[in-house]
Amino acid sequence: MKKLNLLALLLLTLTLSSCKIGRYIVYNFADINDHKKFPSRTISRGDSAFHFAGATEGHYPKKIDYREQSHDFDTFLAEHESVAFMIIHNDSIKYENYFRGYDQSSVVPSFSMAKSVTSILIGCALEDGLIGSVDEPITKYIPELSKNGFDEVTIEHLLQMTSGLKFNEGYYNPFGEVATFYYGINLRKAIKKLKLKDTPGNKFEYVSGNSQLLGLVLERALANKTISQYLEEKIWRPLGMEYDTSWSLDRKKKGLEKTFCCINAVARDYAKIGSLYLHRGNWNGKQLVPADWVKTSTRIDTTAGSASYYQYQWWLPSKSGDFMAQGILGQYIYVNPDKNLVMVRLGRKVGDVNWAKVFTTIADGY
Asked: What is the DSSP letter of 86?
């Protein structure tokens, strides 16, 4: 009887896992092991890996002041749900530490840091002539959305989160759009159902649907190449990543990359993405991403409803020229060009910490 009950439970779990509500019930909420739960495409590293200098130098900083108290830095990170933290200054590792059994080879989902990577690929596609302009209407690439009133929505509206998209960003609602996009098994079908609630270019609202629409624009522009293949060709191999990575899909067969989330990589390779933008898209003398795109993507712009703290899928934590990619559980790539500084924080949870404040506090010490 026990064996029959276990078999029934297993069959139920497998059945539920095949649909959105089933995935939601089984997996419940996004967590640090989600890269193991969904189908994905592998993105291969190149033949040789780039290694930051100074990996064996001592830990820095030893202390950090936060909320009017001084904390031992290692202890602070460990107590606030971190699994990895890196500080790279002048292209050398000044601090690298791992917690809770993680190490430099441990894969951690990017969550919404993938939005920033999607933006990078849009810039590459513009440079390659695959996309004509950010001013193009997205219905040029997704004509099926014309009937839903999307003819005035441009690629830039998606980049700036000013499209006016009607989209429920609440992960706790199994019937909301973000749950459909995260746990669903047919993103293309879900996209066809999207509607607008506001005039494009009127106001900023952070919703993941914009980034997934960018993904479908990119897929259509690439034609016979997957988004993962394009990331491998344009970024992963040229940057000399140390490990293969993957991009989670909605389904195994003919799946679409979840471009609003779900790249799965290690801390050092995330750091290289930050370093690429620190150097304005140039890597060892080769311009991988147009410098003008990097500049446009990380400047403050409040025109046409844009927010002063968000630009082209990157967060702008201050008015000092720094910027960062950010994921829901406290995943960050922070870049401070003035200080020649890159930081990566990966975690199980945010851990009740304003990490942007932590980054700027550390940056002040350089």
From this structure: E
Tell whether the model's pLDDT for residue 236 goes beyond 60: yes
- Return the H-helix or E-strand segment holding 342: strand 341-347
DSSP summary character for residue 54? T
- Cβ neighbors of 328 (< 8 A, separation 6 or more) are 30, 111, 112, 171, 261
Closest to 182 in 3D by CA, of 164, 193, 170: 170
CA 215 to chain centre: 12
Give pLDDT tens digits for 82-136: 999 999 999 999 999 999 999 999 999 999 999 999 999 999 999 999 999 999 9
- Whose tokens are 């993941």? That residue is 208
Tokens of 36: 């193991």
Angle subtended at Cα 264 by Cα 82 and Cα 246, rounded to the nearest 5 degrees: 165
State pLDDT tens for residues 165-220.
999 887 666 667 888 999 999 999 999 999 999 999 999 999 999 999 999 999 99
Read off the DSSP letter of residue 200.
T
- State the DSSP string of 319-336: SSS-EEEEETTTEEEEEE
Task: Compute how many other C-beta atoms are within 10 angstroms of the C-beta atom of residue 33.
Answer: 12
Residue 145 CA: distances (Å) to CA of 118, 201, 206: 21, 18, 20
Q: What does the pLDDT read at residue 172? A: 63
Which pLDDT does position 59 carry in this prediction? 60
**Secondary structure of residue 354 in the 3-state scheme:** coil
pLDDT for 178: 86
The residue type found at 65 is D
